[in-house]
């Protein structure tokens, strides 16, 4: 266990505001008290961009996401990217909360350590869930079981898109099932998210998810994509028609690219 003390780790936090600070989302400014979080040093995930650890925050089980530096990036660019992704993560989660899309609560942001502390969604991610189903169920039941999730997921993605938010990295590892329940889905990992009212970007979001599913989970394609579409359409049919028309173009471009290599 490591104790991270926010006052010690961010000595500059009382510095005067400059123009540059206008961009900052510094939630620590309003806190007079010292905030500590107790970190279990065994990571639950070590991705390309971030390490995810269990922690306790004000007594609650929580998740600490630490963005890590990349030695191959220029240090200035590295700092800028890490900061940008932290800001996007906070903005994306806040926007989803407003739109009624389930996301973990943000408990704390420590911009000096490029860390964010989030509510822990106990359960598993969709990727893990599907791998278990794949191993334990006969193919038709596996498909059926996933269609229920896909329908629900389609609704969440549509709510997010109708609100003009693009996720930027929709994959089965970025969807969580609270307590393993298919009707309690949460979206996570908003570091590449952005606000844009462009149907092409929404279509690419869906396409990235389709490709990620097809690559990882055998035999899910057709019925699953149809279930996602059904859920997506149920939120706003007019909006869905425009996005799915674009998705046809994006899929076609993808197929051409695959053929050319
Ligand atoms: N709030 C959370 N509650 C529970 N597990 C989480 C939470 N956030 C992340 N995880 C777990 O950590 C994994 C990686 O988290 P993510 O935010 O997607 O980081 P990365 O940028 O490395 O992909 C997720 O797939 C999930 O298993
Ligand atoms: Mg992720």
TrEMBL record:
BP GO annotations: tRNA processing; tRNA threonylcarbamoyladenosine metabolic process
Entry EC number(s): 2.7.11.1
Catalytic reactions on record: L-threonyl-[protein] + ATP = O-phospho-L-threonyl-[protein] + ADP + H(+); L-seryl-[protein] + ATP = O-phospho-L-seryl-[protein] + ADP + H(+)
UniProt keyword Cell wall biogenesis/degradation present: no
Region described as Disordered: 1-24
Keywords for the protein's UniProt record, in alphabetical order: ATP-binding, Kinase, Nucleotide-binding, Serine/threonine-protein kinase, Transferase, tRNA processing
Gene Ontology cellular-component annotations: cytosol; EKC/KEOPS complex; nucleus
InterPro entries tied to this protein: Bud32 (IPR022495), Kinase-like_dom_sf (IPR011009), Prot_kinase_dom (IPR000719), Tyr_kinase_AS (IPR008266)
Record-level Gene Ontology MF annotations: ATP binding; protein serine/threonine kinase activity
Domain Protein kinase, residue spans: 38-261
Record-stated family: Belongs to the protein kinase superfamily. BUD32 family.
NCBIfam families, alphabetized: arch_bud32
Name this polypeptide is given: non-specific serine/threonine protein kinase
Origin species: Panagrolaimus superbus
């Amino acid at each position: 266990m490591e104790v991270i003390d926010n006052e010690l780790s961010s000595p500059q936090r009382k510095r005067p505001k400059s123009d540059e600070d206008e961009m900052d989302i510094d939630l620590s400014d309003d806190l007079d008290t010292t905030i500590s979080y107790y970190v279990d040093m065994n990571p639950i995930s070590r991705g390309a961009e971030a390490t995810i650890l269990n922690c306790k925050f004000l007594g609650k089980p929580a998740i600490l996401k630490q963005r890590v530096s990349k030695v191959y990036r220029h240090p200035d660019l590295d700092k800028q990217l890490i900061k940008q992704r932290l800001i996007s993560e906070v903005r994306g989660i806040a926007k989803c909360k407003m739109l009624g899309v389930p996301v973990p609560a943000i408990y704390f942001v420590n911009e000096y350590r490029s860390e964010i502390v989030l509510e822990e969604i106990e359960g598993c991610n969709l990727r893990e869930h599907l791998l278990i189903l794949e191993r334990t169920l006969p193919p038709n039941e596996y498909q059926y079981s996933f269609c229920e999730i896909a329908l629900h997921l389609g609704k969440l993605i549509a709510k997010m898109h109708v609100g003009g938010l693009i996720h930027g990295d929709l994959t089965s590892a970025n969807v969580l099932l609270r307590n393993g329940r298919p009707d309690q889905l949460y979206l996570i990992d908003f570091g590449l998210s952005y606000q844009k009212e462009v149907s092409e970007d929404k279509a690419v979001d869906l396409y990235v998810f389709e490709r990620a599913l097809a690559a990882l989970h055998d035999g899910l394609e057709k019925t699953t994509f149809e279930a996602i579409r059904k859920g997506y359409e149920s939120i706003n049919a007019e909006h869905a028609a425009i996005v799915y028309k674009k998705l046809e173009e994006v899929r076609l471009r993808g197929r051409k690219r695959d053929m050319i290599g």
